[in-house]
């Protein structure tokens, strides 16, 4: 779908329409240069002059899709269709927004409409069929889930008897254990785009499931005076940038602890390499290497944004099932020295949530649509007081007063969260009480942002920011394994 720029068809515009058109042209140019923030700004200005133009809404909807603001994208696509119910692109936009939000049935309705209106459009038919397939598969999964207690993949594996072929000369666990030598060999092996033997991958997954399932939903650690921890944000399958973090900041070890704050997989096409490396270090240093769940360590996201496709391409559907089981055991939040709380998304849709409430969350599941578990994975801060509807269409946005009250009630100093790309790799908001850290530089090969990580020392718990830029990676584009409906060029 080309981006809408046809100007000729709108000669019948109201007064001020030409100014609005100029603003749209300006916005289109920013869009083309992938500067989505400015594109949104000028589409919005165009809409202020002429709020009855479906194309403006539709174009802004696409810019919102690109910046992951699916809630806003959905609202704009809906608006475009209210103005012009024959506007085909509006249906595509609304369908894509709904897909991104995991609302597959709603998306299917829009694809149905397009196919009905354009029976000879092959592209439309393909999208309809793709979406229909997902809806059917979801219905099937629900049927199974209610029929019997879901069995673990672990029970159907016979890892002991998996043979490693003689021609495999890659890394192997030593007596079934992850060692530092194994980790170094595996990282080099991955760097050369080679595949770890499936037996080793399964060994890591089964062991890490066991380790993670013994952790509480809220992990609490204490740093001594002289100790330091490094907190990283989203890595999103950018394996070569992960290696660069280790190069700049040192390999994980008992004296160089790390906390990776979710969204390890999806989008970047080296998600398996990232997650197996992180799981390997979790096994090697269970008390000094920490992982929290992000909103992308979930089935719906993995189906749309590439991780499921990548695991199926490199291994099997069964292995993806096991990943899904492991992800459900990732802890949801971590508290450092009873003062700093770390989570992937942010704070809550309601006041009064306590650390005790977080400890009690039964996390071994796909996240619900609302409530504390959903908020921890999905919410975002906002500059104004109070709460508002999420731009993403899930959870909420919370203001500085919300942060203040939460910290007061729980006797905390500040929160660290990730989840949003930031130009500088980090951002300090809410008077220093809400910090965002993001560690995927030049996100999706196109955002031009820096990455960052944070050092926290036991002595003062003051955040110290370190920035870095993207390094080259082999020529496999982000989203290469994503569902065809989500691939960038097709939106
Ligand atoms: Mn996220």
UniProtKB/TrEMBL annotation:
The keyword RNA-binding does not apply. The keyword Hydrolase applies. Keywords: Acetylation, Cell membrane, Cytoplasm, Hydrolase, Magnesium, Manganese, Membrane, Metal-binding, Nucleus, Protein phosphatase, Repeat, TPR repeat. SUPFAM superfamilies: Metallo-dependent phosphatases (SSF56300), TPR-like (SSF48452). Residues 1-20 are annotated as: Disordered. One of its GO terms (molecular function) is metal ion binding. PROSITE patterns: SER_THR_PHOSPHATASE (PS00125), TPR (PS50005). InterPro entries: Calcineurin-like_PHP (IPR004843), Metallo-depent_PP-like (IPR029052), PP5_C (IPR041753), PPP_dom (IPR013235), PPP_phosphatase (IPR051134), Ser/Thr-sp_prot-phosphatase (IPR006186), TPR-like_helical_dom_sf (IPR011990), TPR_rpt (IPR019734). The active site is at residue 296. GO terms for cellular component: cytoplasm; nucleus; plasma membrane. PANTHER family: SERINE/THREONINE-PROTEIN PHOSPHATASE 5-RELATED, SERINE_THREONINE-PROTEIN PHOSPHATASE 5. Belongs to the PPP phosphatase family. PP-5 (PP-T) subfamily. This is Serine/threonine-protein phosphatase. It comes from Dicentrarchus labrax (European seabass).
């Amino acid at each position: 779908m080309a981006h809408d720029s046809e100007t000729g068809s709108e000669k019948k515009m109201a007064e001020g329409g030409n100014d609005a058109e100029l603003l749209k042209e300006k916005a289109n140019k920013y869009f083309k240069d992938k500067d989505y923030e400015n594109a949104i700004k000028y589409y919005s200005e165009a809409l202020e002059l002429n709020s009855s133009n479906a194309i403006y809404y539709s174009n802004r909807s696409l810019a919102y899709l690109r910046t992951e603001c699916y809630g806003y994208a959905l609202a704009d696509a809906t608006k475009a269709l209210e103005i012009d119910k024959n506007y085909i692109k509006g249906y595509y936009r609304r369908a894509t927004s709904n897909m991104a939000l995991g609302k597959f049935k709603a998306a299917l309705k829009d694809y149905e409409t397009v196919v009905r209106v354009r029976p000879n459009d092959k592209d439309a038919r393909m999208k309809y069929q793709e979406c229909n397939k997902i809806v059917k598969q979801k219905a099937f999964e629900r049927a199974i889930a209610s029929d019997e207690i879901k069995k673990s993949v672990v029970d159907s594996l016979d890892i002991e008897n998996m043979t490693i072929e003689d021609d495999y000369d890659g890394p192997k666990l030593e007596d079934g254990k992850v060692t530092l030598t194994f980790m170094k060999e595996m990282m080099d092996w991955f760097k050369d785009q080679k595949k770890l033997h499936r037996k080793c991958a399964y060994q890591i997954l089964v062991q890490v499931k066991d380790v993670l399932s013994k952790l509480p939903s809220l992990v609490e650690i204490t740093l001594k005076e002289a100790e330091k921890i490094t907190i990283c944000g989203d890595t999103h399958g950018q394996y070569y940038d992960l290696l660069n973090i280790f190069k700049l900041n040192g390999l994980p070890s008992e004296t160089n602890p790390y906390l990776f704050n979710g969204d390890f997989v999806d989008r970047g096409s080296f998600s398996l390499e990232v997650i197996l490396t992180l799981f390997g270090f979790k096994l090697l240093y269970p008390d000094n290497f920490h992982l929290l769940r992000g909103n992308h360590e979930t089935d719906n996201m993995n189906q749309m944004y590439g991780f499921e496709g990548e695991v199926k391409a490199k291994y099997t559907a069964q292995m993806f099932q096991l990943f899904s089981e492991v992800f459900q055991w990732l802890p949801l939040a971590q508290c450092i020295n009873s003062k700093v709380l770390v989570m992937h998304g942010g704070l809550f849709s309601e006041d009064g949530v306590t650390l005790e409430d977080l400890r009690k969350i039964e996390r071994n599941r796909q996240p619900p649509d609302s409530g504390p578990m959903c908020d921890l994975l999905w919410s975002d801060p906002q500059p104004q007081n109070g709460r508002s509807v999420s731009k993403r269409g899930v959870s909420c946005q919370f203001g500085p007063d919300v942060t203040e009250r939460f910290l007061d009630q729980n006797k905390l100093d500040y929160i660290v969260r990730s989840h949003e790309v930031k130009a500088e790799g980090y951002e300090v908001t809410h008077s220093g009480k809400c910090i965002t850290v993001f560690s995927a530089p030049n996100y999706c090969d196109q955002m031009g942002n820096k990455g960052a990580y944070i050092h926290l020392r036991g002595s003062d718990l003051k955040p110290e920011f370190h920035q870095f830029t993207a390094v080259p990676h082999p020529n496999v584009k982000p989203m290469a394994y994503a569902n065809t409906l989500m691939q960038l060029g097709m939106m």
